[in-house]
Amino acid sequence: MKPNLVLLHGWGVNSKVWNGVIPSLEQVFHVTTIDLPGYGSLADQPPGENLSDIADAVLDQAPASAIWCGWSLGGMVAMTAALKQPKRIERLVLVCSTPKFMQDDLWQHGSSETAMQNLSDQFEKDYPKALARFFLLQLGAATDARVRSRELANDVFSEPSTSWNTLQSGLNLLRSTDLRESIKNIQCATEVIVGTEDRVIPAEAGRFLAQEIPDARLHEVAAGHIPFVTSRDWFTERMKQFTGVKP
Questions:
Q1: Pick the catalytic residue: 72, 111, 149, 231?
Q2: pLDDT tens digits for 54-81?
Q3: What is the pLDDT of residues 137-181, one digit of tens each?
Q4: Among 9, 15, 71, 200, who pairs with 33 as Cys (CB 3.0-4.6 Å)?
C-alpha cells in the first residue's frame, strides 16, 4: 500500500502548481493536493484569518495520517498542523519555507517591507502578469524558462482566479507570522529543502529551520524558489529517500 502524501502550495497560486511533479510522485505515493482557503477549487471561500484556522481547514481535508510536504507559505501551514495535530503528520517536508517571512532588527533572513509592498502593488495591478513574471524569475537562466513559466501559469489559471482579498490576506499573514519559538516543539522527523539561489526566501531561513526543529535534516540544491519544477528529478528522488519508499 502506498504511503499518503499531502502537498500544500504557497501564496498566490493553487494546488495545480504541483502538476509537473505529481506523475512521478504517484508512482510511489498516494498523493493528495489541497487548496488553501480562497485558492483554486476553494476560491469562493473566505481566506483563513490566521495560520491556525488554515491548518484546521487543511487537516479537515487530509488523510488521517500522512507525510506532509509544504512549499513556502504551505510549509508554514504544515508546521502549524504538525504542532496542532502531531499524530496526524508522519513526517514533514518543508520546501523553501521559513518560520518568519518579514525582516526585522533580530531577523535578517526575510523580506523588507519595501519589497513586500512592491510585490503587493504588482499583484494588485495585474495578477496574471505578476505571477508569470514571478515564475520566470525563479526559473532563472534555464533555456526553456519562458515555456515552463507559461506552463506553470496555465496550470494555476486552469482553476478559478484568486481574489485580491485572498492575496492581500495572505500577505498580511506573511507579515505577521513568527514561528521561530514554536517550531522547537515539532515532534516528527522533518526534511528541510533549501534552494541556494532562492530570491524569495533566503537559504539561511531554511537552515534556521533545520537547526531549530529537533529532528530535522537539511538538504540544499542549486535552485530558486520552486525546486520541484527546476530540479524535478532531484526532488522526486529526495522524496523517495526521505520516506524509504522503493518504486
A1: 72
A2: 999 999 999 999 999 999 999 999 999 9
A3: 887 666 677 888 888 999 999 999 999 999 999 999 999 999 999
A4: 15
**Residues 51, 103, 201, 114, Cα dihedral to 10°:** 100
User: For this structure, is 9 an active site residue?
Assistant: no
pLDDT tens by residue, 83-124: 999 999 999 999 999 999 999 999 999 999 999 999 999 999
Domain boundaries, the chain: 4-243
Catalytic, out of 9, 24, 169, 198? 198
Instruction: Tell me if the domain spanning 4-243 has CATH number 3.40.50.1820.
Output: yes
**109 catalytic, yes or no?**
no
- Range list of H helices, 85-180: 113-125, 127-139, 145-156, 164-176
Distance CA 195, CA 181 (A): 23
Could you confirm whether 72 is annotated as catalytic? yes
